[in-house]
Design a protein that fits this description.
- The protein is built from 10 helices and 11 strands.
- By secondary structure, the chain is an alpha/beta fold.
- Helix 1 links the parallel strand 1 and strand 2.
- Helix 5 packs across helix 6.
Length: 270
């Protein structure tokens, strides 16, 4: 599929459920993805991708399992059956209570996520660096015929580069290296030399002392047919400001609150 015709490059302001909506349900779980999918048909579900010792792609952010499950172990060193026994709801808190602990919440496979929500768009943020990971991700997306509803992202240029080479018509996020280069060239008014992604720029509003998001950068991205999604936005009151600035979407761990806020802005022109 040509990225120029990709549905996720269409007009409209996107809410991207960060890790499935990590403030509202246990992150990177089917429970979180179900919650996000129930909010609106155009909510984008972001999940993180790791690879188990037996080659299974799973929705999990950290290399280690401790933070979310309370159990020690490295994802890349565990076979999936062992990983699937861990309690992915262990650490989640709501109202000061561990509301999902011991309730059978599990670390899902990416295969299950794509199959369970066949009409929903996804960001697959690849964190694994196994030599086979690019081929594994590409094969999985192809098997589900999901290229029309998936954005592939990774902080590892090698991963994005390998999948881009094999599937040039798919939709990708700019790598951190590409984004930094674009920001620096923008400051020097050399935007025409900036690398094109043909897809989505997923950027923070600021990174340390560096102002990443700018009106000029937005104009340049839109002139190239790209979309700009800002991460990670937690305050609902920032939604209108970012939308009015020209941003095309926001990553948030609070998708329910942001979908409601977007609806309230629907009749207000930018």
């Amino acid at each position: 599929m040509s990225s120029r015709r990709h549905p996720l490059l269409s007009d409209g302001f996107r809410i991207i459920a960060y890790r499935g909506g990590a403030a509202e349900q246990p992150e990177n779980t089917l429970e979180a993805f179900q919650h996000a999918a129930s909010l609106a048909s155009d909510v984008v579900i972001e999940l993180d991708v790791q690879r188990t010792a037996d080659g299974v792609l799973v929705a999990h952010h950290d290399e280690d399992t401790w933070r979310t499950t309370g159990a020690r172990g490295r994802v890349a060193e565990l076979p999936y059956p062992a990983l699937a026994r861990l309690d992915a709801g262990f650490a989640f808190e709501a109202g000061g209570r561990h509301t999902h602990r011991g309730r059978g919440v599990r670390i899902p496979t990416v295969d299950d996520a794509l199959a369970s929500f066949p009409r929903h768009p996804f960001v697959l943020d690849v964190h694994a660096t196994h030599p086979q990971i690019a081929a594994d991700v590409a094969a999985l997306v192809a098997r589900h015929d999901a290229a029309s509803r998936v954005v592939i992202a990774s902080e590892a240029p090698r991963v994005v580069g390998a999948i881009r080479s094999a599937r040039p018509g798919w939709l990708f996020a700019g790598t951190s290296r590409e984004v930094l280069l674009r920001v620096l060239l923008e400051r020097a008014r050399l935007d025409a030399l900036a690398p094109r992604t043909g897809g989505v720029l997923m950027i923070p509003e600021r990174h340390g002392a560096l102002q990443v998001l700018s009106r000029r950068g937005l104009r340049q991205a839109h002139a190239r047919g790209e979309r700009v999604w800002v991460w990670v936005v937690e305050r609902v009151e920032d939604l209108a400001r970012l939308r009015d600035l020209g941003v095309d979407g926001v990553f948030t761990p609070r998708p329910a609150a942001f979908v409601a806020a977007r609806a309230a802005l629907a009749d207000r022109p930018r």
